[in-house]
Amino acid sequence: MSRSERWVSMSAVALAAALLTFDMGCQKATSPAGEQGSHAAGGACPADAKPADLSLSIKDMNGADVALSTFKGKLLLINFWATWCAPCKAEIPGFVELQKQYGKDLQILGVSVDDTPEDIKPYAEKYGINYPLLIGLNREDVEKAYGPFLGIPQSFLINREGKICVKHPGLVSKDKFEQEIKSLL
Length: 185
What we know:
Elements: H1 3-21, E1 57-59, E2 65-67, E3 75-81, H2 86-102, E4 106-112, H3 117-127, E5 133-135, H4 140-146, E6 154-158, E7 164-169, H5 174-184
Parallel strand pairs: 3-4, 4-5
Antiparallel strand pairs: 1-2, 3-6, 6-7
Helix pairs in contact: 2-5
């Protein structure tokens, strides 16, 4: 099975799971330890929150290196996605709005797991994406640091201290992300 076929089948499973758990923006997030419930809603990360690997440098769609460490001190929302993924596409307008509204304190990063820069550039223009899009294709180190991914989208909300407060497997509403972002500001 090719990498693309693997992602398609895993995304279909993730979409089915998301549809089963998505309750009008009330999908439960998981803590890095895997327990159910959104810890960010209470305004703090769990005591055992895992540090995010911010030592990585990933090329953006224009070929520039983006060091994740440059975002330490800001809230960071890392979204793993692909252009062919319908749930990923559904989240993008919310991310664009959140980046506009909270850009002083928040940085959203989209890491495409299965696309080339040539695939991403027209997509970014079409959807008015206002946050950096990074190339995760063939970056096993990135998947090792934040995965394993059983499907996409996968989103990580990282606090100013660089700890993963919430991990969202699957589709999440803008309202849910905004609630968590506000609780961590």
